[in-house]
Known about the structure:
The protein is α+β, with helices and mostly antiparallel strands. The protein has three helices and four strands. The protein has helices at 19-28, 66-82, 108-124; strands at residues 30-33, 37-44, 52-58, 93-100. Strands 1-2-4-3 form a four-stranded mixed beta sheet, sandwiched between helices.
Amino acid sequence: MKAFVTNQKLKKKYIINKKKIVKKIFRHGKKIESNFFKVLYIETTNKSIFKIKLAFLVSKKQIRKSFKRNKIKRLMRRSYQFNTNQITLKPKIYYIIFIYLKQKIHKFYEINKCFENVINKICCK
């Protein structure tokens, strides 16, 4: 595992920022479920420089306090950054939404392990 660097952020160019795309993913996306996440994704052939665009969601019904939701999103982003070297994708563009399912905050290594499994499932399909 890489060293934990606090100043590395997930750049905005990798984040899904259009409502239209999010709605399309929820309607027509493929689904994968694991212990901690529900993952929705779409493979497209749109013209874009970036091969992956992401969104991280934590339900307000599951976790009430906003600081806890934000912490979970940070952990999810961090585990994505740790596992970017594992991602070997086809020459398509992927829009991926990670939805956190649990009602409490889990340790980083548990989330990271689950994230590795999900990424392997997406890459192998």
